């Protein structure tokens, strides 16, 4: 079976999302917002990353951008001169990420020509793949090709790991708020509607 056929099976999506969830767990252990991702090309993970914004004190160090930087820095993954030709370095690459890419990351993904994005849960505050804005397929971004974004893979797990983070004390906050009375909610509402930009 060809790798493009493999990427379209539910078992393959689950396999890669589980790898992204492992990166989210690593982020949680490092006191970062628990978002993790893997970039897959030809049935192989070519990069994996997690949020590092607190660690690096840099708000742009989202999981997706961390992985993109790794890919672009590796000549084996992005041959020298490729970008100069106008080719998109991730045109044959699929991203699996635990949370919908934010507007910043969705724009970066479009600029590098990502093929497809699969994500766990929606990002209702900053989502760039339909929850807030549809950067992934907006006609107002005509220079770079649109990409498809599909939600719902490991959705419950992605929501729960975020909840686990947000009930803990954030030692990195300028003025940490006490969360001793917070209780971890385990009920997850079903999706009410599909984002309008899908």
Largest sheet: 5 strands, mixed
Q: If you average the pLDDT, what whole number results?
A: 87
Question: Low-confidence segments, ≥5 residues, pLDDT <50?
Answer: 1-6, 192-198
Question: What helical percentage do the residues reach?
Answer: 25-40%
The end-to-end span amounts to 28 Å
Features:
15% strand, APOBEC/CMP_deaminase_Zn-bd, five-stranded mixed sheet, zinc, disordered C terminus, 5 strands, alpha/beta, disordered N terminus, Cytidine_deaminase-like, CMP_dCMP_dom, single chain, tRNA-specific adenosine-34 deaminase activity, 6 helices, globular
Please characterize this protein's 3D structure.
It holds the Pfam family dCMP_cyt_deam_1. It comes from Lactarius akahatsu. This protein has helices at 3-6, 10-29, 53-56, 63-73, 103-111, 155-166; strands spanning 36-41, 44-50, 94-99, 116-121, 148-151. Strand 1 (36-41) and strand 2 form a beta hairpin. It has a five-stranded mixed sheet with strand order 2-1-3-4-5. The protein is α/β, with parallel strands linked by helices and 198 residues long. The relative contact order is 0.14. The chain is 30% helix and 15% strand. Mean pLDDT is 87; it is low at 1-6 and 192-198. Helix 2 packs parallel to helix 6 (155-166). The chain is built from six helices and five strands, in the order ααββααβαββα.
């Amino acid at each position: 079976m060809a790798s493009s056929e493999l990427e379209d099976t539910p078992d393959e999506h689950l396999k890669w999302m589980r790898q992204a969830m492992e990166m989210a767990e690593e982020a949680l252990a490092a006191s970062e917002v628990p978002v993790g991702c893997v970039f897959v090309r030809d049935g192989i993970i070519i990069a994996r990353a997690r949020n590092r914004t607190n660690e690096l004190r840099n708000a742009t160090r989202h999981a997706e951008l961390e992985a993109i930087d790794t890919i672009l820095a590796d000549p084996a993954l992005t041959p020298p001169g490729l970008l100069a030709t106008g080719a998109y370095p991730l045109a044959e690459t699929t991203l699996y990420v635990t949370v919908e890419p934010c507007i910043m990351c969705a724009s970066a993904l479009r600029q590098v020509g990502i093929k497809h994005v699969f994500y766990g849960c929606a990002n209702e505050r900053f989502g760039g793949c339909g929850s807030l804005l549809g950067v992934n397929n907006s006609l107002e971004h005509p220079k770079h090709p649109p990409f498809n974004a599909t939600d719902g893979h490991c959705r419950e797990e992605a929501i729960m790991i975020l909840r686990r983070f947000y009930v803990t004390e954030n030692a990195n906050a300028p003025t940490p708020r006490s969360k001793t009375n917070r209780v971890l909610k385990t009920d997850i509402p079903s999706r009410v509607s599909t984002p309008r930009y899908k």
